[in-house]
Amino acid sequence: MIASLSTMTFYDHLHDLRKKLLLSVFFFLILFCVCFYFSNTLFDWLTLPLLKVLDPKAIESHRFIYTSLPEAFFTHVKLAFFGASVIGLPLFLHQIWLFIAPGLYLNEKKNMRSFLVMSPILFYTGVALAYFVLMPMAWKFFLSFEMPRSSFLPVILEAKIEDYVNLVISLSLAFGLCFQLPVALLLLSKVGLVKSKMLSNKRRYAIIVIFILAAFLTPPDVLSQIALALPLLLLYEITIYLMKRQEKRK
After folding, report:
1. Cβ distance 160 to 119 under 8 Å?
2. What is the pLDDT of residue 17?
3. Are the CB atoms for 119 and 183 separated by under 8 Å?
């Protein structure tokens, strides 16, 4: 990269952006190939929340199925894409940082660096909460509708692998993205669009919005909705506290 930002032309910036994008794509392709090689292991990890809530005596009566020839293959591709995106998130953010950092002042660099560190940590925290807390509760709720009776035809889970993987990925991304709430609000506060007093005054509306969002993003049971809503409410309060400290420093 050219040492002096002031000497860079528009085409120099485009060339630098192109180089960062190509490097990100290169990283992604490597991670994709590795994740595709271990896609069976990734799928096994994703099924652990389901195995934990299944009755050990009834595990043999359950199975995953696929109903079209390419379904299993494309499911593995989707797993590899998801794994590469999640694992490579810090690398991609680092490339973004390398592109924008030369155009920032020292104090702006300091602030942006903290956001770039906070964002993946919050994303991984949301994914972990979905995996370790929400999914076991949600799967237990759904499995409660099974009817392994003997007098009539039983109702037993035989889930399609595509449907299961889609549901797991959707919940993981939903939690990961929702946990970006503090980052988004603090950035808006930095540019003066949001104040801590405004968030405090609108707290009652924020609670309603968060519970509606949780009901929309999670399976239709109360425990799952609370599992997402409570952490978001906590993050909302923490964000107000951080914004107050930020405003005092100003």
Report:
1. no
2. 79
3. yes
* 210's tokens: 């968060």
CA separation for the pair 171, 168 (Å, rounded): 5
Count of Cβ atoms closer than 10 Å to residue 37 Cβ: 12
Pick from 177, 140, 159: nearest CA to 75: 159
Name the E strands within the chain.
63-65, 158-160
CB count within 10 Å of CB 228 equals: 27
pLDDT per position as a tens digit, 88-109: 998 888 888 877 777 777 777 7
Q: How far apart are CA 182 and CA 100, in angstroms?
A: 21
Task: Please answer whether residues 88 and 31 qualify as being in contact, where contact means their C-beta atoms are separated by less than 8 angstroms.
Answer: yes
Query: Among residues 29, 24, 25, 2, which one has the least CA distance to residue 13?
Result: 2
Nearest Cα residue to 133 out of 209, 223, 43, 215:
223
The CA angle 71-156-131, to the nearest 5 degrees, is 65
**Residue 210: other Cβ atoms inside 10 A:** 21
The pLDDT tens digits of the residues spanning 189-244 come to 887 788 888 988 988 999 999 999 888 887 777 877 888 889 999 999 999 998 88
Q: What is the spatial distance between Cα 13 and Cα 4, in angstroms, rounded to a whole number?
A: 12
For residue 159, what are the contacts with CB-CB under 8 A and spacing of at least 6?
64, 65
